[in-house]
Design a protein that fits this description.
Largest sheet: 2 strands, antiparallel
Distance between the termini: 77 Å
Number of strands: 2
Helix content: 40-55%
Number of helices: 1
Structural class: mainly alpha
């Protein structure tokens, strides 16, 4: 059963702050997600510090001269 007195325009007006808050939260989460991906990509790189390193593409061992 539906409500007998449904005023969609009034309901849209009453829900505008909540919908705006949800939109802002989703945009904030998207910005943080893009920032996290950028940080992870920036921090990733070649492994450092091990005397023996394994090439992930071929599986060959390579020694590092320090």
């Amino acid at each position: 059963m539906s409500a007998p007195d449904t005023n969609v325009e009034r309901q849209a007006h009453n829900h505008r702050p909540a919908l705006s808050g949800i939109t802002i939260a989703v945009l904030f989460a998207a910005i943080l997600s893009v920032g996290l991906v950028a940080w992870v990509v920036y921090q990733g790189g070649e492994p450092e510090g091990a005397a023996l390193q394994i090439d992930g593409r071929t599986g060959a061992a390579a020694t590092v001269d320090e």
